[in-house]
Amino acid sequence: DSTTVLIVGAGPAGLVLGNLLKAAGVDCLILERQSRAYVERRARAGFLAANTVRILEENGLAAGLLRDGRQHDTCLFRSEHAEFELKYSGLGRGEVHTVYPQQDLVRDLIAEFLDRGGELRFETAVAEVNDIGSDRPWIVCRNADGELQRWNGRYVAGCDGRHGVSRQAVPVGAVRQYRRDHGISWLALLAEAPQSMAAVAYAIHDEGFAGHMARSASVTRYYLQCARGEDPQGWSDRRIWDELQLRMQADRYGPLHQGPILERRVVDMASHVMDPIQYGRLFLVGDAASLISPSAAKGANLAVMEAEILAKALIADLRDDDERPLARYSEDCLPRIWRAQEFSHWMINLLHGPAGNDDEAVFLRALQRARLESLRNSRRHQDHFAENYVGI
Ligand code: APR
Questions:
Q1: Do β-strands 74-78 and 70-72 pair in parallel, antiparallel, or remain unpaired?
Q2: pLDDT, tens digit, for every residue of 353-372?
Q3: CA of 63 to the centre of ligand 1 (A)
Q4: What is the phi/psi pair of residue 124, to 5°?
Q5: Which CATH number fits domain 5-70+97-178+270-344: 3.50.50.60, 3.60.160.10, 3.40.50.300, 2.160.20.10?
């Protein structure tokens, strides 16, 4: 069996790419390891940048988010010394976030891809990606019945996320791997409770960071900085709410709306960038190309940005016989990936100070306070913050 573009993974990257290729009449096949029900239920991100909404709108993929998405333009910083909020619709380029749970976007993108006649195989795991240095790459996948199938293609798009296989097909010496373990871990929580405030809230506290962000009318996302290797099951609902109330200074600013904790998992803050994010006929997109910490809600937005760039490049090559955009894919994406990485790194150091009372920790926490004060007092800094926080 063969197709023109083999897409590994049906997350935001693979589904946006597939929809754009299908709309341009390019033959493609998406292979997704999980079931449809699983990917449509998997709660991940939910803050869509303006560029992401533009791409989805321009390609007829935004019906759901325009109907149910909610504009968001305020973030609030709470420390033991002060609280202030930034309305970023009046800052930077005046862009705002659209809050729309990622699983809802994935659901919409799957439905649209199938409506466009796209071929999407669920419960089909790609085991190998071969001959990406030739003009006849091929993959081996295993379907739900355990049968092995071979698919030939002209191009392979590795949209298989943080734990994907496609990037392993790239010869080790052919790419630079940039990695950083930020040494910070978050207990990522989903609570069945309405949001406690109209803003995204970042609480900076000596006990550690706590975050609050809306997901839907009835579910709210919270984060609690925790020790590396922490067992999420060691956190009862009671202990979670007590710690959230403490770090968000509920006694001073009002109680949080509590409810059952639906999901708890530990996320280790790590960054990873490959350079280049292409090799021969393999092109990496989204988390498969670069991993970013959730501290600035960039992951899904980078995935959609790269998917648009790659779709346009593949269409230029396949329809207009112009190979230049494809050759330039990595250099078109990497500067924006690094800009997002830099901002995310700055956010990590704004929200977290190292524990301990040695000189280094005490000094770095003083820098953290100065960072927060600069953001609080300087309009120029707020413009720069807004441009990076919402932009891609
Ligand atoms: N074969 C087939 N599918 C695979 C394989 C494989 N070997 N390995 C992974 N997948 C699938 C996963 O099941 C997942 O559905 O690839 C998809 C990758 O999707 P994401 O992890 O969502 O990655 P991406 O599309 O790059 O989106 C990036 O979205 O997940 C959020 O915020 C998160 O930053 C992340 C962003």
A1: unpaired
A2: 888 899 999 999 999 999 99
A3: 23
A4: -130, 105
A5: 3.50.50.60
Q: Is 104 in the pocket of ligand 1 (CB under 6 A)?
A: no
**Given the CA of residue 34, which atom of ligand 1 is nearest to it?**
13
Quick count: other Cβ atoms within 10 Å of Cβ 371? 17
Edge-to-edge strand list for the sheet holding 70-72: 47-48, 97-99, 70-72
Q: Are 140 and 148 in contact (CB under 8 A)?
A: yes
Take residue 354 and report the two structure tokens written for it.
């190292």
Please report, to the nearest 10 degrees, the dihedral formed by the alpha carbons of residues 357, 360, 365, 368 taken in order.
-170
For ligand 1, whether the C-beta of 296 sits within 6 Å is no
Which atom of ligand 1 is closest in space to residue 285's alpha carbon? Answer: 26
- Check if the beta carbon of residue 36 is closer than 8 Å to that of residue 111: no
What ipTM does the predicted assembly reach?
0.98
- Domain borders along the chain are 5-70+97-178+270-344
Residue pointed to by tokens 């000596």: 206
- Please answer whether residues 170 and 129 qualify as being in contact, where contact means their C-beta atoms are separated by less than 8 angstroms: no
Gap from CA of 299 to ligand 1 centroid (Å): 11
Separation CA 148–CA 92 (nearest Å): 52
pLDDT tens digits along 138-182: 999 999 999 999 999 999 999 999 999 999 999 999 999 999 999
From the CB of 315, is ligand 1 less than 6 Å away? Answer: no
User: By the 8 A CB rule, do 105 and 12 touch?
Assistant: yes
Burial of residue 24 (number of CB atoms within 10 Å: 0-12, 13-18, 19+):
middle
Q: How far is the CA of 162 from the centre of ligand 1 (A)?
A: 7
Q: pTM above 0.90?
A: yes
Residues 7 and 31: their CA atoms lie apart, in Å, by: 6
Which residue from 188, 203, 137, 205 is spatially nearest to 355, judged by alpha carbons?
205
Identity of the residue numbered 330: S
One-letter amino acid of 223: Y
